[in-house]
Design goal:
Blueprint (H helix, E strand, L loop, with lengths): L1 H12 L8 E16 L13 E16 L2 E6 L1 E8 L5 E18 L4 E14 L4 E5 L6 E6 L2 E13 L2 E10 L4 E6 L5 E18 L1
Antiparallel strand pairs: 1-2, 1-12, 2-3, 2-4, 3-5, 4-5, 5-6, 6-9, 7-8, 8-11, 9-10, 10-12, 11-12
């Protein structure tokens, strides 16, 4: 009798939802709003503005354990970057692998609200050593990007059938690389830099 009461208690905690245990596939697309945290050396600012806008797109897999407990795994082509003080756009392309545990409160068969959190690994694509010369001061900015960067996603959103809308904050757990400033006297000043990202995501999961 006691076990039945406990079972019914947890059963009523699970709201009605159309999702069934299994694996669903879909696609995600969204906007990266990047905030670059990079040092100034002797008043020389490396970036024109701290913010930069990029994008991402790719497939997503959603594993449904319970109607209210799911896990998302994605492989996304992502573009981030920064606008340097001399007007040059420094783009960083990567493949992102976010894994998020999702808690869903379903309000009917098609509508639900959720919160999610999990780690993300970004693997850099292409050239990771970038050199930019300022023609006015003669100084050279050098960016050495890491091959892999680790971060944490925190966010939430809503589901409307197969359409999922969410907002994530990507918190850096490691640096993106090292920024070095070489002046005309060959003196070198360097420091590690990192970036945080606000993401607006549209996913279609079938």
């Amino acid at each position: 009798m006691g076990r039945r009461i406990v079972f019914l208690f947890f059963l009523f905690l699970l709201p009605p939802c159309a999702a069934e245990a299994g694996v669903d596939f879909g696609a995600s697309v969204g906007v990266n709003c990047i905030n670059n945290d990079i040092s100034e050396f002797d008043g020389e600012k490396a970036v024109h503005a701290d913010n930069y806008t990029g994008f991402f797109i790719g497939p997503v897999m959603e594993a449904v354990f319970l109607p209210s407990l799911r896990m998302d795994v994605s492989a996304l082509y992502s573009q981030r970057g920064m606008l340097l003080s001399n007007g040059v756009s420094l783009k960083n392309r990567s493949v992102s692998f976010p894994v998020s545990l999702k808690l869903v409160a379903c309000l009917g068969d098609v509508f639900g609200l959720f919160v999610q959190s999990g780690p993300q690994v970004d693997i850099s694509l292409g050239e990771r050593h970038r050199t930019v010369v300022n023609p006015e001061s003669g100084e050279t900015s050098v960016f050495d990007l890491k091959k892999a960067v680790l971060s944490l996603n925190l966010g939430g959103g809503m589901e409307l059938g197969c359409v999922h809308l969410s907002v994530n904050y990507n918190l850096p757990l490691s640096t993106d690389g090292v920024y070095s400033l070489h002046d005309i006297s060959s003196q070198i000043t360097s420091d590690a830099f990192k970036s945080s990202t606000l993401q607006f995501v549209l996913s279609l999961v079938f």
